[in-house]
């Protein structure tokens, strides 16, 4: 369900599944006569079929790509399953139908119809695309049902549906959140730093690549930022103010999930890395407050922010390079290399939080640094609390490039 989905028209080939952008639904299945439809005169939507109604729901999330993509994926799976497999409109689904759907997402059958070959991820226009890359994990199943429940609730509130059949599903007691597993251990993180430090720097292009790798890993790790925050960030978001001790404190202002602003402590170590990165790229050592230079500079140009996918690819490239470098050291490094190849930019955010916690940083400090919980309005006045958070973060959470260099020297001498 992309941001522009064509009108559904009759004569769909119901033997195949395809992205809803190109799906063609016959009138008897498009929901105009769905058994759960609300009264037309009380509906607050102009939608007259299920596809348009779901599109209206998704339009609320059009400005947040990750959320939009996730919500479209779950709505699309249910819509396709209802129409193709069950032969019913979305707006005719019952409690009993949704019980079947719960079983279905745990093991989509038939596989050839629903699951992509080899579990691969293909472009939505590719003939090999399927709604699933494999059975959903228990956590993904729960998330799918949560999203679909929100969709049904919205459609009921809008008057398009009379009731929410999803609300009748039995919800198991919520388990305690599992510990984060998608992060790099301290020893594996040291390997990443060693890899970056051994990158060649003989040519201008090599020096530029090394500088970007070092800056990216430093920025993600020390600041615990989301990929969207890095992609959309600007150098002018760095600022300094006087602390309670009369000394300068550096901070980075960022716009996080849900358009919530937060400020993250910036250590002298990060400021030095910022100076080095900017100087190598021909910029003044420190940014001005109003500077619009991107946090991560493109190799060509200066004022164009990199996309989320470009940042993702850059981090994946570092991890892939480190994995190859590890494998070259011997077969005993194979498992560690495999772990790095699975890692992504979000792993660095988890790594930052995990290493802060392991290093003894107060959990409330980590919460505020990562933006898991927004600060209350009154906390704007608690400058003493901010001072403590700044001191604790910059003193206990370090990049330690010098340690990586010393370890590289020892490794080279073996």
UniProtKB/TrEMBL annotation:
Keywords: Cell cycle, Cell division, Chromosome partition, Cytoplasm, DNA integration, DNA recombination, DNA-binding. It comes from the Bacteria. One of its GO terms (biological process) is DNA recombination. It is found in: Cytoplasm. SUPFAM superfamilies: DNA breaking-rejoining enzymes (SSF56349). The keyword Cytoplasm applies. Residues 48-156 form the Core-binding (CB) domain. Pfam families: Phage_integrase (PF00589). Its main location: cytoplasm. One of its GO terms (molecular function) is DNA binding. InterPro entries: CB (IPR044068), DNA_brk_join_enz (IPR011010), Integrase-like_cat_sf (IPR013762), Integrase_catalytic (IPR002104), Integrase_recombinase_N (IPR010998), Tyrosine_recombinase_XerCD (IPR050090). Residues 179-395 form the Tyr recombinase domain. One of its GO terms (cellular component) is cytoplasm. The keyword Cytoplasm applies. Gene3D superfamilies: 1.10.150.130, Intergrase catalytic core (1.10.443.10). This is Tyrosine-type recombinase/integrase. It comes from Paraburkholderia sprentiae WSM5005.
